[in-house]
């Protein structure tokens, strides 16, 4: 059974497995700070609890708890390695905190999942004159895949190389085929 909790500052909801929801609503510290009722959407798109506490000396400290990190550390910590130590969402929805959707990944894997900044709309695809170049990063260095007559063809070539090099952990472009374009 899945549980949905509306966020404090948005109409969005965070999604949890039953075991996770039980932990969030029964852990003594999380209950004390009213964690579940104070989760809000962070500018990065993930769920976060943030509160400013006043210290006895009059100074202030901000406590920040990222929802997906808290859950991963509690339930999936045994999967964390020195290399794969960043928590990510398999389906890209940072508010979907079901255990099956959370995974540890390396910085390189997380980088491959980010939204592209290319003007073509595809990761690894750049316009050069009237043609499109497909490139992919291998060990931090840009590697040429080929030149193509359309951005879509270059994106498909990028996808093939990404699958070959990185398997399921590679970035895959969602190709928008135009009418009369080869598929």
Overall description:
With 183 residues, this protein is of the alpha+beta class. It has two domains: 2-105, no CATH class; 115-169, AP2/ERF domain (GCC-box Binding Domain). Helix content is 25%, strand content 30%. The chain is built from five helices and ten strands, in the order E-E-H-H-E-E-E-H-E-E-H-E-E-E-H. It has helices spanning 18-26, 28-32, 67-75, 107-113, 151-166; strands spanning 2-6, 13-17, 40-41, 47-54, 60-66, 86-89, 102-105, 125-128, 131-138, 141-148. The strands form four sheets. A three-stranded antiparallel sheet has the order 3-4-5. Strands 8-9-10 form a three-stranded antiparallel sheet, covered by helices on one side. Strand 3 (40-41) and strand 4 form a beta hairpin. The longest helix is centred in the last third of the chain and has 16 residues, at 151-166. The radius of gyration is 21 Å and the shape is elongated.
């Amino acid at each position: 059974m899945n549980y949905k909790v509306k966020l404090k500052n948005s109409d969005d909801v965070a999604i949890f497995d039953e075991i996770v929801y039980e932990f969030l609503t029964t852990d003594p510290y999380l209950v004390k700070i009213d964690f579940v009722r104070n989760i809000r959407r962070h500018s990065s798109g993930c769920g976060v609890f943030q509160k400013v506490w006043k210290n006895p000396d009059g100074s202030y400290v901000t406590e920040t708890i990222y929802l997906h990190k808290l859950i991963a550390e509690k339930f999936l910590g045994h999967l964390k390695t020195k290399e794969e130590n960043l928590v990510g969402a398999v389906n890209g929805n940072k508010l979907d905190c079901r255990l099956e959707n959370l995974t540890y990944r390396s910085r390189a894997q997380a980088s491959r999942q980010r939204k592209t900044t290319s003007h073509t709309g595809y990761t690894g695809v750049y316009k050069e004159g009237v043609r499109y170049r497909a490139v992919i990063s291998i060990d931090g260095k840009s590697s040429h895949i080929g030149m193509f007559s359309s951005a879509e063809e270059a994106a498909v070539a990028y996808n093939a190389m990404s699958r070959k090099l990185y398997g399921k952990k590679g970035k895959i472009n969602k190709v928008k085929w135009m009418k009369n374009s080869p598929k």
